[in-house]
Model the fold of this input.
Amino acid sequence: MRRLLLLAPLLLFIAGCGVVQSSEDEATDAARDVARKAGERLYGQRPRTAEEVGRFASGIDGVEVLRVTGTSTHDGDGVDVVVRTSGSAYNGWLDPEEVAVRRCFAVRVSPKSEWREDPRDVDCPDGPALTFAPAPEPPRLPYEELRAKLPRVPESGRVDEAEVRRALAALDLHPAIRTEVKADGGRVGVLLSVQGNRFDAQDCLLARVGPGATEVWVPPRIQRMPGEGGCTVGNALDPKPSPH
Done:
């Protein structure tokens, strides 16, 4: 009788609160929160292929990628990633045993996605987690080689654009490296660059060949950000002032 009296306030409290969420439901919510946070990290407007999205998601702690559908984030409905995550909770005061679950959720990655969009509950696909090859490294821009190959013109001399172009051809550049050459005011500007992602700083080399001076340099990072115009042949001919 004494034990029932002690439990009575607890039972009244539970009844007053309505339906109590089970420990398994709480553990599932914890697993869903891991998937939601993965979606936050995948969120963004930058165009990415399905492989890029899957590779990035597979590198997030606590996330296994089981399926990737779609072509790219900006095609159709974007990219859907099915992830498997884990969550845990405790049964409660009377039975403090940990309950652990593994659940699967679908995360959509698209410019139309909403920030902190709830992942969809889905059945886990059969098979092991997907693995992705490392992202290919962009080709190295040949700073030293370019500096060595470009012609040196005496102060009283005249720059030959064709000679500059021959020097670039002799470098046997990687096909992914874009080159641009422009003559202006007795000088020749050179740009070597690799394609950027339109969000991060672009890799590029600038050079200017003029009477008495041949220079090769990398613009400051801030100038290499999208829209800043640092990676242009115009910046090689007339460099922007360095940021302070």
Q: What stands out?
A: The beta strands are 64-69, 79-90, 98-109, 120-122, 178-184, 187-193, 204-210, 213-217. The chain has a mean pLDDT of 89.
